[in-house]
């Protein structure tokens, strides 16, 4: 969140809020959304090995944000080896485990039409 704020954007979180209510209020005025996908859950096909995945409410919120904002205005920041939901195309998945994740995030923001200072993206 501090990284997003350093770029000059207001960070709004859905933590501890009902996703439907939150989206009806916040998504209408949002220009871009970021979803943090961390391996806090496990799951898989019945009878198969369980694999790390993001909690299902996070996957649900990702889908709702794509519906509200369009895929090109949503980025999923992915930590670790997390199962990704089926994606018909457009959602930008950025691995937080990569050294250049900030640059990829900056490109996603730029593609969505956001204006920001690239120097702040590159600052550690």
Structure commentary:
The chain has 124 residues and is α/β, with parallel strands linked by helices. It has one domain (2-122). Helices cover 35% and strands 16% of the residues. It has helices at residues 2-6, 19-26, 56-69, 101-111, 118-122, and strands at 33-37, 41-43, 51-53, 74-78, 92-95. A three-stranded parallel β-sheet has the order 1-4-5, with helices on both faces. The protein is globular, with a radius of gyration of 15 Å.
Give the structure's gist in a few sentences.
This protein has helices at residues 2-6, 19-26, 56-69, 101-111, 118-122; strands at residues 33-37, 41-43, 51-53, 74-78, 92-95. The chain has 124 residues and is an alpha/beta fold.
The tally of structural domains comes to 1
Helix content: 25-40%
* Class based on secondary structure composition and strand pairing: alpha/beta
What is the element string, with H for helices and E for strands?
Answer: HHEEEHEEHH
* Termini Cα gap: 14 Å
- Principal-axis shape equals globular
The parts where pLDDT drops under 50 for at least 5 residues are none
Strand order of the largest sheet: 1-4-5
Radius of gyration: 15 Å
State mean pLDDT (0 to 100 scale).
87
Largest sheet: 3 strands, parallel
**How many beta-strand segments?**
5
């Amino acid at each position: 969140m501090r990284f997003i704020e350093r770029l000059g954007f207001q960070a709004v979180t859905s933590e501890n809020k009902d996703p439907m209510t939150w989206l009806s209020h916040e998504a209408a005025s949002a220009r871009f959304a970021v979803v943090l996908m961390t391996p806090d859950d496990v799951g898989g096909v019945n009878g198969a090995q369980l694999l790390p995945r993001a909690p299902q409410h996070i996957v649900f919120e990702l889908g709702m944000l794509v519906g509200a904002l369009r895929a090109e205005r949503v980025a999923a920041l992915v930590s670790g080896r997390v199962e990704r939901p089926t994606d018909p195309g457009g959602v930008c998945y950025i691995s937080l485990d990569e050294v250049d994740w900030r640059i990829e995030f900056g490109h996603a923001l730029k593609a969505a039409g956001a204006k920001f200072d690239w120097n702040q993206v590159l600052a550690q």
